From TrEMBL:
PANTHER family: F-BOX DOMAIN-CONTAINING PROTEIN
Name of the protein this chain belongs to: Uncharacterized protein
InterPro entries the record matches: AN11006-like
Top-level taxon of the source organism: Eukaryota
């Protein structure tokens, strides 16, 4: 028989040891890291989903007795600054967030399809609330259109998400008198509440009387993160801040545009372009992808800085040509890294739960290749890639489309075949392109056979097109 548990006096331990136990048990986070983390780089300029990884601390420790509860709760809130982020359901955050996001460590989340779960307001963990909604939406319209989607997350994760929100959008139909693009503000209103009212609690009394209204030092710490993160927001409001002057300064700071010097931008892009090229030549695709990602993140921020864009163009055509060439190399090498890694994965046995991930990656790769010339407007309009790169880009686009449709069991369409035909036209006689064209035509032809088969089968034994094609012709089911 197993030996009975040995009891010991936990409260008899020194306070430093107890605090270490509290921190280990109540401040630990974990996330499910997928096996294809490099492929997430392809989503740098694609629509990004917030990957929520839930808090894994052992909250039962807080229920032992009142002293342990008070000590542990205090440590938990000192080490973990939680923020309640509320996004109105009429605001699609996935269309505004750009760039690869690391997993978000969230204590709790509640969406409208989780009606049976307790709302985050019942959890007294958050020390600040940030509410996002469209700037012209009134409270009455919010009540009619639905509720907020709530996520209680760590402060640092919240800031990482918010700094990747698009600061500006550009309408190509509205040129200025000098035929330049007019930048316009993102139509988002941000409300920051430093002392959010909680259920059955007022501003002066928090959960179990442990944390009262934030001190001036705590408020300055929270506002520092806000001031360092947000830029270019006209519709910004701070509530329940005791230091009104500080709040006004942060609001003014947030409304300013990001300032990046032209010399720094050009040196940064050139350095990362050369570094990524060297890593690719050495066969280190992970390092190459990281260099590309870091360089393109700055390109993305500059895209919304109209003065810097105009200054770059005013330097002359040759200057803009070299800059656009470096930017193209970053996009091109990032696509090659993603494509090479995805190709290697397909040689291995793919588990069922990874099908969705591979399909998403293939879609991000296609989106990256299809629209990268339009992302920075004038930067890339002066540089035309060589023919062999154009052919390779079309080849990668065709293959990415085929893999995406393969894993999603989607109905194929002619874009895939047009891409590979363009690759063959630009670089005729390439056996790799000819083989991809053969697979594309077979893929399109089998769609008609599959539709006939679906109409004749017993739906209890229904199979998706993916598995049907694996049985019909396994040679086609490959990257």
């Amino acid at each position: 028989m197993p030996e009975p548990y040995q009891h010991f006096n936990f409260l008899g331990l020194p306070r430093e040891i107890r605090d270490a136990v509290y921190e280990y048990a109540l401040c630990s986070f974990s996330h499910r890291r997928g096996p294809y983390d490099i492929t997430q780089c392809a989503g740098l300029c694609s629509w990004t989903d917030v990957q929520i990884c839930h808090f894994t601390g052992d909250l039962n420790l807080l229920l032992v007795n009142k002293q342990i509860h008070n000590e542990g709760y205090k440590i938990m809130l000192e080490r973990n600054l939680f923020v309640l982020v509320q996004i109105h359901d009429s605001t699609d955050e996935h269309l505004m967030i750009r760039g690869h996001l690391p997993p978000v460590f969230a204590l709790y989340s509640a969406y409208q399809d989780e009606r049976e779960q307790v709302r985050p307001e019942s959890f007294p963990w958050h020390t600040m609330r940030i509410r996002l909604n469209e700037k012209n939406t009134t409270p009455e319209e919010m009540a009619m259109n639905g509720e907020y989607n709530d996520i209680v997350m760590l402060l640092e994760d919240c800031m990482d998400i918010l700094k990747r929100f698009e600061l500006r959008v550009t309408d190509e139909k509205l040129p200025d008198p000098n035929e330049r693009l007019l930048p316009m503000r993102l139509p988002i209103k941000v409300v920051v509440d430093l002392n959010p009212k909680r259920k059955e609690c007022n501003r002066e009394t928090s959960y179990m009387n442990i944390r009262n209204s934030h001190s001036d030092i705590e408020q300055k710490k929270l506002l520092k993160h806000i001031g360092d993160t947000f830029r270019g927001y006209d519709h910004f409001e701070i509530r329940n801040c005791d230091d009104k002057v500080l709040a006004a300064e942060v609001v003014q700071q947030v409304s300013k545009d990001p300032v990046i010097s032209l010399a720094f931008f050009q040196a940064h892009i050139e350095r990362h372009s050369h570094s990524s090229e060297a890593s690719w030549n050495q066969g280190n695709i992970v390092e190459c992808a990281n260099f590309c990602t870091e360089g393109l993140e700055l390109v993305h921020r500059v895209r919304f800085s109209a003065p810097l864009t105009y200054q770059l163009c005013d330097q002359g055509l040759q200057n803009c040509f070299h800059t656009s060439q470096f930017i193209h190399r970053l996009y091109y090498l990032l696509a090659r890294c993603t494509f090479a890694h995805l190709s290697k994965l397909m040689d291995k046995r793919i588990e069922e739960d990874n099908y969705q991930y591979i399909g998403d990656t293939a879609h991000a790769l296609f989106d990256l290749l299809k629209t990268h010339r339009k992302r920075v407007h004038g930067f890339l309009s002066h540089y035309d890639p060589p023919i062999h790169e154009k052919a390779e880009i079309n080849y990668m686009k065709a293959k990415a489309l085929r893999v995406e449709w393969e894993f999603y069991s989607m109905r194929p369409w002619g874009e895939m075949l047009r891409c590979i035909e363009d690759a063959k036209r630009l670089q005729p006689g390439d056996p790799i392109y000819e083989e991809e064209e053969r697979k594309a035509k077979l893929w399109l032809g089998e769609n008609a056979r599959y539709n006939v088969w679906v109409r004749t089968i017993d739906w209890e034994g229904y199979q998706t097109m993916r598995y049907w094609r694996m049985e019909i012709d396994k040679s086609v089911f490959e990257f």
